[in-house]
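Dear Dr. V.,

Thank you for agreeing to look over these. As mentioned in my earlier message, I'm a first-year student in the group and I'm still getting used to reading structure tokens, so any feedback on how I've presented them would be very welcome. I ran two proteins. I've put each sequence directly above its structure. The first is here:
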Amino acid sequence: MAYVLDFEQIDSANIADVGGKGVHLAELSRIDGVHVPDGFCVTTDAFRRVVAETPSIDARLDRLSRVEPDDHAAIRTLSADIRQVIENVPMPGDVAAAIGESLARHGEHASYAVRSSATAEDLPAASFAGQQDSYLNIAGLAEILRHVRRCWASLFTERAVAYRRRNGFDHRKVRMAVVVQRMVFPDAAGVLFTADPVTSNRKIATVEAGWGLGEALVSGLVSGDVYTVRDDQVVTRAIAAKSRSVQASPDGGTRDAPVEPGRQTRPALTDAQVVRLVRLGRRIEAHFGRPQDIEWCLTGDEFHIVQSRPITTLFPIPASDDRDNHVYVSVGHQQMMTDAIKPLGLSLWQMTTPRPMHEAGGRLFVDVAPLLASAAGRAQLLGTLGKSDPLIRDALQAILDRGDFIRPLPEGDSGAMPIGGPAATPIETDPAIVTELIRRNEESVAILRREIRGRSGPELLDFILADIAELKRLLFDPRSIQVIMAGMEAAWWLNDHLDEWLGEKNAADVLTQSVPHNVTSEMGLALLDVADVIRPHADVVAFLQRVADEGRDGDGFLDELTGLPGGREARDAIRGYLDTYGMRCTGEIDITRTRWSERPVTLLPAILGNVRNFEPGAAKRRFEQGLRESREKERELLERLRALPDGEGKAAETKRMIDRVRTFAGYREYPKYGMVSRYFVYKQALLEEAGRLVRSGVLHARDDIYFLRFEELRDVVRTGHVDPGLIRERREAFRTYEALTPPRIITSDGEAIIGEYRRDDVPPGALPGLPVSAGTVEGRARVVLDMARAELEAGDILVTTYTDPSWTPLFVTAAGLVTEVGGLMTHGAVIAREYGLPAVVGVERATRLIRDGQRIRVHGTDGYVEILG
């Protein structure tokens, strides 16, 4: 058992022995041209030995593991107790001897930096930077041993414990090694980011520099000079007034010292030194294969690297096999699903869509650079996205305005394939067209359910692959696209012309309330009918509340209902609802997500909310009210139009468009419903196959299939062999992707382009967004990040990141809607208009800027949100 390893003895296989920092320093010391101060690591075996020989630590860890994550007082008390025990524990003699021998080799009278190196620290998945302690300018064996114990104890600072709880790390599985490294007493020191930490641009490096030890910058004692570098050129520099520095103390440790006035505004580095440092950083980045956060020191004219860790907050760049410039637009922001998607879900979605898509960070992107390069493609793209999401349009325009990223194509060259489907030709306003499209889809899904039964093995995978062609045929049926486009174009026509003729903004919002064939709005109203069945039975309501509070998995609780008065009727009502809508869930475009049918408890908060907030018959009344308001708005508008010059002609044309939008607008939600219905049939069959693979020992768990792409799963089913390491690797990668926020637009340089609302009509302090459903409402904000935990009361305003169809049951209770992601024709907007809810979408950081319980006012006509207090 080795208690000490020198840097030259360490490689990546020693991660469990010396932690991330130790491995990185050892790797750094072997990179040609990189100077790393000499040193060694006290291994995790030493830490493990001390914990094993101190039973009181183990008992305290047991108590810490049982503390609730939000019990800050208990965490603070227990953490302090554990630290005190570790700091005062006797150092085992053989451990102390091993450390003493290493000090003798490296210079027993020298000064050292003693730094923690936890086994979960500085890994690609999560940077623990600053979560444990470091001690500088420590000399002598006794002091080194004391500070090694202090580093061990720093594993249990309140901040480090809270960080592990938040990121899912087990306290017992995180071990502590300690780096002991020769001190460098620098003239200047600081931090180098090999990618821009603000924009994420991988081609721009940022250097921060100050006098003395780098701890002055890291601790926030002073602001340093800041340089940005691109292509070996310093492109910006901001020289700070550096009035303080951290220096080594003659008695050991460090001290805060003033900087003489003549040096305070002098640059800590020359431009030549900055460029040389960035070149060094690029060499380190190339070695580790990803952008780095590097701590450096400058002594004389020589740079020393004292630490390097991955920058874990950067969103990955979609892979490309060329060196061209690319502009990637997020698919998730169009689909109202910005969460990470597992590999099976990514591959199935790519098999479903006609456009080439690129993966990064568990999300999908479309490269629009070819469209931006042509005048026609540019106009079409900006026009379409301008209506849907002004933030994306503004970001694309910002790229074009630079003039150096997109190379224009010659006149007449249209670039790549256009967005959308084939050009829509006019169709007659005939409701029978919609009913026929729905009938065909329903019949096709029924045939799928019938024919997939009994299939298994390679036959099942081949059958699903063949059926995806049928799914695509239905999704991209030219007739279906014509209907969708006809409804959208009629709504645009009404909004444009009625604003021009009457000054009536967003008139189509009211005119499209309670339209026929909107399967998603019907789904929300149907849950009101379920509540009507449950409401009269107090025992059933109380039982369902207990089940909701417990968060039970599976649907076993439904059969338990039959023992209660009214329970059988309640069970049948819920099951009937699931038979029609149970394939839906949050993030439903990812086939791997848990469906309502698989976990019906997800619906209970919405059902119980409906029981509390509505009277019997609310669904019918709600629909009829929307219909009355729509007809009244139609009558009013036509009457006002007839009073205008050429009023009869304008009224007749408007009437034709109103009939058209009401005939076709509801259908827009149906194709996705049909797609998700098929996905659920596929999923049920694939999980049965996964169960067979588990029973035969091929897979460890059924959900292993979620971390295989469809073609990989076909191979596993065919061969009976799988790479367990690949599944483990992808599970770990998915956990890191879940913590990332995808940008609307990212370039091939890695730069996340942030669009802006360029408006002057928003009151000071208000949050701008896109108006998608007219009206103004004031109420209590309910910030909801998980539909299964939503508790809305009548009059509440729903504030969330995004909504897809699974959120519709909450819309019947909400008085208004605010989302961070969304567009004019995305789900939340369509259903908000259908239900008559004022709504503003695309409100950046809404869930962080608006606090749960605050009173807010939503201006759905003008597109902004006021926080009232």
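The second protein is here, in the same arrangement:
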Amino acid sequence: MTTPHESVRELDEAQTWQFLADHRVGRLALVIAGEPDIFPVNYVVDDRSILFRTAEGSKLLAVSLGARMAFQVDEWDHTGAVSVLAHGVARELTDAERDAATELGLSPWVPTQKEHWVRIEVDEIAGRAFTFGPEPEPYHPVG
């Protein structure tokens, strides 16, 4: 029998950042005027922040408003899954920062112009690893 303790493991901070660094596509969640949205974006990790590129639109508007954002990356196979969730405030890079960031190899994954470079300054991050298995029997205390 698998207990919940054995099937869910918290990742430490180094493991969460390594997981993000090992992947290239995540989901950006934000709220504008009370309306939640989620966008798939390709990204890179730079130190303890997440960089992505965008064009004019909802994502850039949220950045200009100083909105908090959530960013999630996960993976799974037949044995289990890993999920990392980061929160923070995003800002557009300055020209000098953008010039330096070009060395990170972040290119649009569709053939469109993504002229705006954005950095999410992560202030909260958490991750969990899950081992798949059968549902445990219900707990019935004896007594």
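From my reading of the second output: The first strand starts at residue 8 and ends at 11. The mean pLDDT is 92. Does that match how you would interpret it?

Kind regards,
E.
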